[in-house]
Structures are given as structure tokens and as C-alpha cells.
């Protein structure tokens, strides 16, 4: 299961935060490869921190809708496959522009 976020546009431009992030990255010469590498490193670091318990004092356990206790961020994925990451389609600006 993956949550689906509503498309929330910024009032003054009509575009999403993701669209603005894409434009900013492009303006600073940050390409897809650099962004993917950063995302992989970020997930790997979060996964290792979660696994080692180094941030255990920062995590608050909550009760899910089904009554189960949730104490791990299920969206953190460690040791991603580079080929699978590269195969993902753009999510923000390109999606808004119909690409």
C-alpha cells in the first residue's frame, strides 16, 4: 500500500511544490542522475539509522487504524536497486505537463 497525496497547487502559481522543485533543480543544473543518487543515499542512511536504532529516541509509536502499533517508517527503503530507480518515470513537473 502506498499513500496517494492529493495534487495541492501553490496559490500564486497554480503549480505543486514538486513542480517548483523540478524547476529549481533545473535552474541549478541538478540533473536526474544527481537527484537519484541523493535519494538512494538518503534512503540507505535512513534505513541504516532505523536498523541500528540510532534514532530510536526520535521515533514515536502510534496506533494505526487497525489497532496495530506502528513504530517504523514503512516508506524508508534501504539498498535500492539503481536500475529500478532509473526506470521510474518523473513524478512532478513532467506529469503536470502531460509528459
From TrEMBL:
SUPFAM superfamilies: Thiolase-like (SSF53901). Residues 8-94 form the Thiolase N-terminal domain. This is Thiolase N-terminal domain-containing protein. It comes from Eutreptiella gymnastica. One of its GO terms (molecular function) is acyltransferase activity, transferring groups other than amino-acyl groups. The lineage of its organism: Eukaryota, Discoba, Euglenozoa, Euglenida, Spirocuta. It comes from the Eukaryota. GO terms for cellular component: cytosol.
Amino acid at each position: 500500500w502506498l499513500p496517494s497525496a492529493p495534487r495541492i497547487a501553490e496559490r500564486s502559481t497554480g503549480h505543486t511544490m514538486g513542480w517548483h522543485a523540478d524547476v529549481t533543480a533545473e535552474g541549478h543544473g541538478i540533473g536526474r542522475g544527481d537527484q537519484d543518487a541523493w535519494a538512494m543515499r538518503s534512503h540507505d542512511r535512513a534505513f541504516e539509522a532505523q536498523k541500528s536504532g540510532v534514532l530510536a529516541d526520535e521515533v514515536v509509536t502510534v496506533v494505526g487504524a487497525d489497532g496495530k502499533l506502528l513504530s517504523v517508517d514503512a516508506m524508508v527503503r534501504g539498498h535500492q536497486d539503481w536500475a529500478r530507480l532509473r526506470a521510474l518515470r518523473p513524478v512532478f513537473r513532467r506529469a503536470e505537463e502531460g509528459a
